[in-house]
């Protein structure tokens, strides 16, 4: 038995008109989102990890166990790989109620070779909020409830990895918003890796701990989500927008104006109070186009969120009239999108001390 935290995925797949070459190490827990345009190979990666598709040159090691090592002639079929797989559409047993579906999975649960505790149906029921639905027929569930049951059923087999292929894609906006908090909670409580395929910006910013950006079968970048979004080469545009992800903690509330104060490395921001608890960690998505720069401490401005920072880098934007400025707010990266004329007029240079004014930001959790 190997190191439990070791998850190595090396794949080399060729299909007519498409090749996939991937070599990545996945963290031992938390949510790794595979993000990329349609046809970039996200589902192929999941299917190869699951053994549903065989990559002719592959090394797949999960939780320290080798599931596939073509150089040594090892290929475990899917049923011998300890994994949970959640598809876009939940395929639940309609002749069983929710409890029956979970019980079916529990009977298939395999004990861990290293003796670590089983992921029990009780854990799945609690973490996905299913206790009131246990005796419901699966045909009487909403789409969001069905997906929560599908995830719980995948967990109840005690897998070493949970693979989710766009699990919210078949749901409408309201149902997606209903399921997202459960996925967030699962990501923080589950002690196994989750690999989550998505091309939805909101799912990336809310769920990803690690972000893998795939393009045309190649890993463009992999790393902690905030680091990936703040990096320069290539600039990652989720949903076509350059944005920064700022992680902070709620430190105070201003009930009179319905605002909450979020502290992060380098400063604080006020956001509309969304029933946040003091001490709670939140993520803020700040679009580059909502950040402006002043060379002197602004006064008499309507913009509430101003932080002192340093110009780290100035890059051309995709649009020729604009530039992207990467700001360093005591370690937190913030992108600003300005016209190139403004960059010239303010004589912005790397190393300059400036103030960033943030017009708007979105709480992502
Ligand atoms: N059975 C197949 N035979 C030939 N090509 C295939 C086959 N299955 C998938 N492909 C091709 O492999 C490429 C990657 O497909 P894949 O489904 O992994 O992408 P994806 O990033 O998950 O896309 P989407 O977001 O649309 O689901 C695509 O170009 C697709 O057309």
From TrEMBL:
Pfam families (UniProt xref): ABC_tran, TOBE
Protein name per UniProt: Molybdenum ABC transporter ATP-binding protein
Superkingdom, natural source: Bacteria
The keyword Ribonucleoprotein belongs to this UniProt entry's keyword annotation: no
NCBIfam families: modC_ABC (TIGR02142)
Keywords for this protein: ATP-binding, Cell inner membrane, Cell membrane, Membrane, Molybdenum, Nucleotide-binding, Translocase, Transport
PANTHER family documented for this protein: ABC TRANSPORTER I FAMILY MEMBER 10, MOLYBDENUM IMPORT ATP-BINDING PROTEIN MODC 2
Cytoplasm keyword on record: no
SMART domains with a match to the protein in the record: AAA
PROSITE patterns: ABC_TRANSPORTER_1, ABC_TRANSPORTER_2, MOP
């Amino acid at each position: 038995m190997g190191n439990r935290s070791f998850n190595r995925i090396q794949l080399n797949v060729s299909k007519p008109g498409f090749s996939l070459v991937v070599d990545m190490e996945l963290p031992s827990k938390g949510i790794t989102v595979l993000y990329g345009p349609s046809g970039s190979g996200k589902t192929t990666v999941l299917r190869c990890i699951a053994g549903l598709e065989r990559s002719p040159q592959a090394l797949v090691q999960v939780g320290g166990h080798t599931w596939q090592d073509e150089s040594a002639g090892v290929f475990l079929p899917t049923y011998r790989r300890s994994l949970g797989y959640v598809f876009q559409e939940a395929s639940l047993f309609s002749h069983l109620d929710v409890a029956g579906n979970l019980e079916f999975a529990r009977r298939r649960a395999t004990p861990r070779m290293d003796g670590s505790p089983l992921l029990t149906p009780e854990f799945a029921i609690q973490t996905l909020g299913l206790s009131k639905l246990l005796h419901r027929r699966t045909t009487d569930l909403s789409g969001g409830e069905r997906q929560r049951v599908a995830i719980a059923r995948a967990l109840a087999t005690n897998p070493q990895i949970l693979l989710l292929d766009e699990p919210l894609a078949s749901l409408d906006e309201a149902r997606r918003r209903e399921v997202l908090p459960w996925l967030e909670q699962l990501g923080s409580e589950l002690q196994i890796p989750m690999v989550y395929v998505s091309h939805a910006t909101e799912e990336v910013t809310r769920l990803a701990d690690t972000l893998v950006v795939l393009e045309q079968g190649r890993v463009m970048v992999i790393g902690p989500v905030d680091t990936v979004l703040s990096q320069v080469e290539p600039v990652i545009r989720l949903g076509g927008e350059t944005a920064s992800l700022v992680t902070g903690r709620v430190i105070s509330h201003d009930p009179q104006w319905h605002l909450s104060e979020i502290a992060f490395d380098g400063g604080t921001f006020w956001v509309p109070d969304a029933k946040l608890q003091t001490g709670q960690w939140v993520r803020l998505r700040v679009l580059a186009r909502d950040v402006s720069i002043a060379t002197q401490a602004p006064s008499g401005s309507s913009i509430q969120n101003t932080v002192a920072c340093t110009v780290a880098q100035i890059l051309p934007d995709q649009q020729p009239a604009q530039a992207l400025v990467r700001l360093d707010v005591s370690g937190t990266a913030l992108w600003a999108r300005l016209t190139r004329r403004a960059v010239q007029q303010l004589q912005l240079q790397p190393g300059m001390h400036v103030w960033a004014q943030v017009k708007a930001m979105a709480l992502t959790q």
